[in-house]
Specification:
Largest sheet: 3 strands, mixed
Radius of gyration: 26 Å
CATH architecture of the largest domain: 2-Layer Sandwich
Helix content: 55-70%
Shape: rod-shaped
Mean pLDDT: 81
Oligomer: single chain
Structural class: alpha+beta
CATH class of the largest domain: Alpha Beta
Order of helices and strands: HHHHHEEHE
Distance between the termini: 43 Å
Strand order of the largest sheet: 1-2-3
Number of strands: 3
Length: 143
């Protein structure tokens, strides 16, 4: 199998190192010693995390993480009244509200606090705005 052009320099450096190690340690031990200079061995879990983070768009990954951690981010009681619906690429979070009276009394007053809590819990600034929608409807549409 031919070496891709991006790997020519890396392969040449590795071959020089291998030659030098053979001179120092002898043929057999020099070939074994090159292993100590190889890239770090990664676990299957590390490879899966890397693969998934590269395969899934960031927005979809954020939606999955928010949906999975919603009760932890807010609280179980709050989650019974307000459900995560979706978040778009611009950082607009859509939340389903079960009753409009709850929206007027509590949510509109605490939207900024909720944004701050979401961004803090997730460790990244993904939520910039919250829009409340009636329960059972998903207002997120891709433009």
């Amino acid at each position: 199998m031919p070496i891709p052009p991006s790997k020519y320099k890396e392969a040449a450096e590795r071959e020089r190192l291998k030659t030098m190690l053979r001179e120092w340690y002898g043929e057999r031990d020099g070939n074994l010693e090159i292993v100590a200079h190889d890239k770090k061995i990664r676990t299957l879990n590390e490879l899966n995390v890397e693969f998934i983070s590269n395969a899934i768009p960031a927005n979809v990954h954020n939606q999955i993480e928010l949906a999975a951690r919603w009760q932890e981010i807010v609280s179980p009681q709050f989650a019974t009244l307000v459900a995560f619906s979706s978040i778009n690429e611009e950082g607009v979070l859509f939340l389903e509200v079960r009753h409009s009276a709850f929206l007027q009394d509590e949510l509109l007053k605490s939207a900024d606090l909720l944004i701050e809590r979401i961004n803090t819990k997730l460790g990244k600034n993904i939520c910039k705005e919250i829009r409340f929608v009636p329960s059972g409807r998903n207002y997120y549409t891709k433009k």
